[in-house]
Amino acid sequence: MRLARTARWLRRLGAAAGTLLAASVLVFAATTLAPGDAAAARLGGRAGPQQIAQLRHSLGLDQPAWVRYGHWLWHALHGDLGTSYASGRPVSALIAERAGNSLLLGATAAALLVPLAIGLGLWAGMRAGRAADRLVSTATLALVSMPEFVIGTLLVLLFAVGLGWLPSVSVPSAGHSVLTQPQILVLPVLTLLSVSLAQNVRLVRAGVIAANASDAARTARLGGVPEHRVVLRWVLPAAVVPAVPVLARYLAYLLGGTLVAETLFGYPGLAAALVDATAARDVPVVQGVTLLVAAVTVTLNLLADLLAAALNPAARSLS
To answer: Which residues are in the ABC transmembrane type-1 domain (predicted)?
Structure first.
């Protein structure tokens, strides 16, 4: 049994590694096939053909694509993502400066998602059919129906333009870090939470309604067990455990998919670095940031798969 479980985990690890390898191929191909020339963009419009050719040779851009991909992948596996064409700094150092801000944004949203999803889902599910449940159901349905950039725009119009409570952009003042100005995190975090929270609240609510009507809960109530103990002992575990794998996938999204919110609010994270590098044809930075996001997403989804298999016996038997 233990060997079979180990074999399943190894298969999952192999699938994750294969996915990441495929992502690296797509990233490299996309940056290679993109229109324009990195050497010409770096030198500017006044450079002559000879200067461009010399720079292409020094950067290795005149080598076959498969050779460049092999060199890039080999160095990336050893932690060397190359050197920025625009600044001349190591790409890993540039990413390290921005990754902390992106991680702070995603981790803040993730830390709020779990208690809010479980709390609101439990509150609505225990009041199924009442006004409170209808209010939560309507609000979550509205949030699910709108994309993040629309919700973010509406939040700016309400809290920044209309009420003036929060800044419309999430750019820290010169010489200050994000941690010293927490108010700039509020709108990006709310934008990230919008769809993720709505989906998980609806999932937990449905589980609570089913568990509340189960034979175990009814028997406990008939036996005189206090209502709060029925909820904590029978209803909440039965509702939350099936939702945990889905919740874990949303946590993976929040930690690896903050690019939309960062771009919308100008937050100084990896998204800003990616947008600037794309405009400047800074290929090493584009490749490094994209590969890092892909690696984080694949890793967190792997952990979500393992969690789902650990909590669901049927999933374990089918793996």
So the answer is: 99-304
